[in-house]
Amino acid sequence: MAKVDRANYVMHKSEAYEDSPQSIGYGATISAPHMHAHAIEHLLDYLGPGKRVLDVGSGSGYLCAVLHHLVPGGVVVGIDHIPELVDRTKGNLRQDGLGSALDKGEIVTVTGDGRQGYSDLAQYDAIHVGAAAPSIPQQLIDQLKSPGRMFIPVGTFAQQIMQVDKDENGKVTKKNLMGVMYVPLTDAERQQRGY
Fold first, then answer.
1. Contact at 8 Å (CB) between 71 and 47?
2. Residue of 85, 128, 133, 166 with fewest CB within 10 Å of its CB?
3. Does the pTM exceed 0.85?
4. Alpha-carbon distances of 11 from 17, 59, 98, 109, 118, rounded to whole Å
5. Which active-site residues does the annotation give?
6. Residue 50, Cα to own-chain centre: how many angstroms?
7. Does pLDDT of 84 surpass 70?
């Protein structure tokens, strides 16, 4: 995380280093740094050279940048359903010196419904979800490699971070990690209406 300047990914640079979620517009937030650190910590065993990672609800692109540094020679796919955020992500990544990673396809940013994953580049060694799903989308489990791991907030009012592991035989296990409060994983129209 030290290789990525969070100030390049927030709207208010003076608040970039506060350990709290911050609005990035369009009803979306950038998670607090401690939550990104928890995500990386829990996914770390599935990151490394040549790995493939999906970041659902990629927002401003911050975690895509962090993940890129953790999967040299691999691919990070960021998906968000707000086209303006996807455009902003590309600008943020270029501003942070990662334009060549975009140009080479090492970081791929797409507009789409993250609840469906991104099958064009699946299977993924690791999946991070940055908004709370009412339940774990089966499409994301299907796009997880064997072995692979997903870090996903789940729930509506009471939310938990769940670690979803798929072993080498395809067996899926789920483990509650901690209680959290995230914005909901929803469709673009509901998000822009304020849920």
1. yes
2. 166
3. yes
4. 12, 12, 19, 19, 27
5. 31
6. 18
7. yes
Count Cβ neighbours within 10 Å for each residue of 139-172 and write b for 16 or more, e otherwise. Answer: ebbebbbeebbbbbbbbeeebbbbebbbeeeeee
Does pLDDT of 191 surpass 60? no
Least confident of 9-18, 59-68, 140-149, 175-184: 175-184
* Long-range contacts (CB closer than 8 Å, 24 or more residues apart) made by 122-126: 122/54, 123/52, 123/148, 124/52, 124/53, 124/54, 124/77, 124/148, 125/46, 125/47, 125/51, 125/52, 125/53, 125/74, 125/149, 126/43, 126/46, 126/47, 126/51, 126/53, 126/54, 126/150, 126/151
CB contact at 8 A, 112 and 81: yes
Contact call for residues 8 and 2 (beta carbons, < 8 A): no
DSSP codes joined into one string, 5-72: -GGGG-S-GGGTTSSS-EEEETTEEEPPHHHHHHHHHHHGGG-STT-EEEEET-TTSHHHHHHHHHST
Report the percentage of the chain scoring pLDDT > 70: 93
Greatest Cα-to-Cα distance within the chain, rounded to the nearest angstrom: 48
Bond from prior residue into 147 cis (ω within 30 degrees of 0): yes
3-state secondary structure of 146: strand
